[in-house]
């Protein structure tokens, strides 16, 4: 795919200063120019060629406008696309100068209507419950984000052994050795006239699943978040062990129930036994969840289809919830001496 045409950034090392880069052509045959403004030596211009494979940018360049009183060598540079859609890398020249650089996608932005500058930052966030997402679904969700960002490209990051960031079109054609991923991230950022960027970030992982929108326009921020909430809703799994609407789960319910029941036990040893037993049940429920009901099931292919594959996680969550509740109730009843077996 074609890389963004205009980039701006900074260079560090034996030379420092501001960078402006322009690219033309297709990713496997890039041409363009790099403009370096060194605060000590002045302005230099390089003619460049190279390629971009969706993750890595490789460049070679020759000086077209040398710095006054300074020698410039042939340029080589390598950069990787990071999770924020920036290019970070290293550069060297044939005369021994070297350093690092960072480039940001740069787009022309028209003036605000009426010339009014807005500086208020609005941020909205929503946490999802457990999800099951495959490659096609993450691609469709990223395409929804791309529809709202006309002047920048969406970046999809996959953690599957190693973490790799790819532009959306490159992600569609990428091949993966792993069947599952640990984390999926979708990120897009677009500068606005006021200097406040529009940002969308969606992440699915073992600890948290969330969507975040940010920008200067509150209506846009809230509207975009609501849009993604509706899109992700079909990917969520409903577990009987988690009451997302109320912000707690079966573990919290068991713990609160045990505290409420403690005064009904006559002896300290029985109270200790109740809390120890309930904490053991909570630990077992947590282990079963991590092992069989992960917070995010992320597939780099297609996720399993069929009635059993879809209904089994919810059915298992009901079994866990009912079993843990019955176990805690029997323990409390036994310790109070209400069962035929004496404690």
Note down, in words, how this protein is organized.
There is one protein chain. The protein is elongated. Helix 4 (250-261) packs antiparallel against helix 5, helix 4 packs parallel to helix 6 (307-335) and helix 5 (268-292) packs antiparallel against helix 6 (307-335). The chain contains six helices and 19 strands. The chain has an eight-stranded antiparallel beta barrel with strand order 1-2-3-4-5-6-7-8. Strands 9-16-15-14-11-12 form a six-stranded antiparallel beta sheet. The chain has a three-stranded mixed beta sheet with strand order 10-19-13. With 343 residues, the protein is α+β, with helices and mostly antiparallel strands. Strand 1 (6-13) and strand 2 (17-24) form a beta hairpin. The protein folds into three domains: 6-105, Lipocalin; 113-233, no CATH class; 242-335, no CATH class. It starts with 5 loop residues before the first strand and ends in an 8-residue tail after the last helix. Helix content is 29%, strand content 35%.
């Amino acid at each position: 795919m074609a890389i963004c045409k205009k980039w701006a950034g900074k260079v560090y090392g034996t030379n420092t200063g501001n960078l402006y880069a322009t690219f033309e052509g297709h990713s496997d045959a890039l041409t363009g120019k790099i403009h370096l403004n060194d605060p000590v030596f002045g302005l230099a211009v390089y003619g460049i060629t190279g390629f971009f494979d969706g993750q890595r940018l490789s460049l070679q360049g020759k000086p077209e406008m040398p710095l006054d009183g300074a020698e410039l060598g042939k340029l080589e540079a390598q950069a990787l696309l990071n999770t924020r859609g920036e290019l970070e890398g290293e550069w060297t020249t044939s005369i021994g100068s070297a350093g690092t650089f960072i480039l940001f996608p740069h787009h022309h932005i028209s003036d605000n209507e009426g010339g009014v500058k807005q500086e208020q930052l609005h941020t909205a966030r929503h946490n999802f419950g457990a999800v099951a997402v495959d490659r096609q679904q993450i691609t469709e969700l990223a395409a929804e984000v791309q529809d709202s960002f006309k002047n920048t490209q969406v970046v999809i990051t996959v953690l599957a052994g190693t973490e790799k960031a790819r532009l959306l079109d490159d992600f569609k054609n990428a091949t993966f050795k792993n069947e599952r991923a640990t984390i999926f991230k979708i990120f897009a950022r677009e500068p606005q006239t006021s200097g406040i960027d529009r940002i969308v970030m969606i992440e699915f992982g073992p600890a948290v699943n969330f969507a975040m929108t940010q920008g200067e326009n509150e209506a846009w921020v809230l509207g975009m978040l609501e849009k993604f909430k509706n899109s992700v809703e079909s990917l969520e799994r409903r577990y009987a062990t988690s009451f997302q609407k109320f912000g707690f789960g079966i573990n919290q319910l068991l713990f609160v129930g045990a505290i409420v029941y403690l005064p009904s036990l006559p002896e300290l040893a029985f109270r200790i036994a109740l809390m120890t037993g309930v904490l053991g049940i909570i630990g077992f429920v947590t282990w079963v969840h991590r092992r069989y009901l992960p917070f995010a099931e992320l597939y780099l292919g297609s996720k399993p289809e069929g009635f059993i594959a879809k209904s089994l996680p919810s059915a298992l969550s009901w079994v866990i919830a009912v079993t843990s509740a019955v176990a805690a109730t029997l323990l409390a009843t036994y310790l109070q001496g209400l069962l035929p077996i004496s404690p």
